[in-house]
Design brief:
With 146 residues, the chain is α/β, with parallel strands linked by helices. The chain has six helices and four strands; from the N terminus they run αβαβαβαβαα. The chain has a two-stranded parallel ribbon with strand order 1-2. Strands 3-4 form a two-stranded parallel ribbon. The structure holds S-adenosylmethionine. S-adenosylmethionine (SAM) binds next to α3.
């Protein structure tokens, strides 16, 4: 995604802040960046911590760094509070910035109630079943266009 952005806007300096709870996955990400030619000069800030801790840290510092683009790809299942997480990251967007959330499709259109699937989704670290329907309702309740 960053490579694509950088090649689309070659003259624009790109900086990226990464929030990732797993040090193993962060190391994998760093290794990938190191061998990606057009990202080697881009400054990265690495926050090896859960989203909730990053939010706490940013609020404690009282200095909000803002972003043109924030993505949450298949991670919304892991956060404690969906509404406050969306509100927080939305507050970090610059004017005309975009927040991209990728999440499981809402399965309620299927003949079976969602309860049927909960047990399959809610394993290990995933405590709550969250789908596009819930995210959509949450955005709507905060008056956010999506
Ligand atoms: C299903 S993976 C998706 C990874 C990546 N976004 C992708 O699409 O390939 C979920 C990611 O969320 C991270 N994660 C889990 N709980 C988190 C939290 N509370 N805050 C931030 N990241 C978290 C995991 O370490 C993992 O990298």
């Amino acid at each position: 995604m960053l490579t694509l952005l950088q090649s689309t806007f070659p003259g624009v300096p790109i900086t990226a802040d990464i929030v990732e709870g797993s040090s193993q996955l962060t190391d994998n990400f760093k290794a990938l960046v190191a061998k990606t030619t057009n990202l080697q000069k881009s400054p990265f800030a690495w926050y090896i911590m859960h989203s909730e801790d990053y939010e706490r840290q940013v609020k404690e510092k009282g200095h909000l760094k803002t972003f043109d683009f924030i993505h949450m790809i298949q991670m919304i299942y892991f956060v404690d509070n969906l509404a406050s997480t969306i509100k927080f990251y939305h507050s970090l967007l610059k004017n005309n910035g975009r927040l991209m959330i990728i999440v499981e499709a809402d399965l309620r259109w299927l003949a079976h109630p969602v309860e049927t699937y909960k047990k399959d989704f809610c394993v290990d670290a995933i405590q709550k079943y969250r789908s596009s329907g819930e995210v959509s309702a949450c955005l709507k309740s905060q008056g956010l266009k999506h």
